[in-house]
Write a structure and sequence with these properties.
There is one protein chain. The chain starts with a strand and ends with a helix. The chain is globular, with a radius of gyration of 26 Å. By secondary structure, the chain is an alpha/beta fold.
Length: 469
């Protein structure tokens, strides 16, 4: 079997020699160039499994080489060598198609891990043509967890396959319940880090005073209660992926520390004297408008640009209604398997009601609606009444229903004509707000009560009164 080949492009002889020696010890064949013109000639004459390029070169920039490789050699992973702390250049390189970056002075252990990851990716790509090498992953059972044949979901799956090839940070945007964590898992599982850990963390669920210890770890005796050394989430995710869910909930002091970790690729445990290198891909998500939070000063702009190198929007369920029947069948079958019985039949009027529903809680809400309907239905037949859908969240009630124009939507539901009593209308509003709070807190009733501004006892009473619990 022939050796895998690497092209190193850097105008500093010391860097070229360091990389040549290090990569040679990994049983790789290394060729080098000191400028853009020599690199272009080598790229035209030979095929490489991996490329490293410096950003500043005597006759041009590494950025134009990265763009050239992305355009003419898409199967070749390329990593950028950047000056210490020059994250703007690293981000631009990642946006242009770079696989990853390494900072000067080069950390040899970090370099080896990067090379191993890149070569695994290169091998996968060379199993077939550029697109075909990735296509098989899109047909696996893993990707089928992302259910739907709509154009929107086809585009999401295609984007996931592309993002899996890179190590660039990805920001996954979308409303609550659309499946952002599932998308993050698929990016991880289809990429070269698939054999490494996938560590999800809900940033809004960690108390502020414990965040630094949870993320970076601590040394024994570093604070009261630190009876043993503890690894943080970054160390746990080493060699894999760290998924920061609800990243918008990070307090400002943690945003600063997270930015430093992303830039330095190292963490310092509380009480530790030295930084610990970490090889982690960062994926993040939130249902909030992160750009708006940046504009209002609640989220650091520099961190936003670091984690939002590539954005993937996951569409809400109301934008892919054609997927609802298939999703419904899959969910009902899963519930039947869990219960050890036959799947109930969804009657046509009930399916129509689902198709007309706006699903403010998206796929997660559909799962909850069907689980409740299975419990309520008689003789294995789900009727419209068993769904207990919120009266206002219908296909005709868009986001404007919560604004000044919402009265028209309410009238469309019969309240203006008197066909629905005031008590019923108020109950429907209460149900909607309570369901929204439960969905946003993942059915943590204590947290939902706090979000609603009522006591836990009052929430429990309302759940019983409205038949939600």
């Amino acid at each position: 079997m022939s050796k895998q080949t690497v092209l190193v492009i850097d105008d500093e002889r010391d860097i070229r020699e360091l990389l040549t020696i290090t990569l040679g010890r990994m049983n790789l064949l290394v060729e080098s160039a000191g400028n853009v013109s020599d690199a272009r000639r080598l790229l035209a004459e030979h095929s490489y499994d991996l490329c490293f390029t410096d950003m500043r070169l005597p006759d041009g920039s590494g950025q134009e080489l990265i763009e050239l490789i992305a355009r003419e050699h898409p199967q070749m992973p390329v990593a950028m060598i950047t000056a210490y702390g020059n994250m703007d250049a690293a981000v631009n390189a990642l946006k242009a198609g770079a696989f990853d970056f390494v900072s000067k002075p080069v950390d040899i252990n970090m370099l080896r891990r990067l090379v191993q990851t890149a070569l695994r990716l290169s091998s996968e790509r060379h199993d077939g043509d550029d697109e075909a090498a990735v296509a098989p992953a899109a047909d696996t059972a893993t990707v089928q967890r992302l259910i739907g044949d709509s154009l929107a979901m086809q585009q999401v799956r295609a984007t996931i396959a592309k993002l899996a090839r890179s190590q660039a940070p990805v920001y996954i945007s979308g409303e609550s319940g659309v499946g952002k964590e599932l998308v993050a898992r698929l990016i991880h599982e289809q990429g070269p880090r698939a054999n490494g850990p996938f560590v999800p963390v809900n940033c809004g669920a960690i108390p502020s005073e414990l965040m630094e210890s949870e993320f970076f770890g601590h040394k024994k005796g570093s604070f009261t209660g630190a009876q043993t050394d503890k690894e943080g989430l970054f160390q746990t995710a080493n060699g894999g992926t760290l998924f920061l869910d609800e990243v918008a909930d990070l307090p400002m002091h943690m945003q600063v520390k997270l930015l430093r970790v992303i830039q330095e690729k190292a963490v310092r445990p509380i009480g530790g004297r030295a930084e610990v290198p970490v090889d982690v891909r960062i994926l993040s998500a939130t249902h909030k408008d992160l750009a708006r939070l940046v504009d209002s000063g609640h989220f650091r702009q520099d961190l936003f640009y670091r984690i939002n190198v590539i954005e993937l929007r996951v569409p809400p369920l109301r934008e892919r209604r054609e997927d609802i029947p298939k999703l419904t069948v899959r969910i009902l079958n899963r519930l039947a398997v869990e219960a050890g019985g036959d799947a109930p039949r969804l009657q046509p009027p009930a399916l129509k009601a689902l198709l007309d529903y706006a699903f403010p809680g998206n796929v997660r809400e559909l799962e909850n609606i069907l689980e409740r309907a299975v419990a309520l239905c008689e003789n294995g037949s789900i009727e419209v009444a068993d769904l207990m859908l919120s009266a206002r969240a219908t296909a005709g009630a868009d986001d404007s229903a919560d604004d000044e124009g919402g009265d028209d939507a309410a009238a469309g539901n019969g309240t203006a004509s008197g066909s629905v009593g005031l008590d019923d209308y108020i109950s429907s509003l209460e149900r909607e707000k309570i369901m929204q709070a439960l969905l946003e807190t993942r059915y943590n009733k204590t947290a939902a009560a706090k979000r609603l501004g009522i006591t836990f006892r009052a929430l429990r009473y309302k759940l019983k009164k409205l038949g939600i619990d």
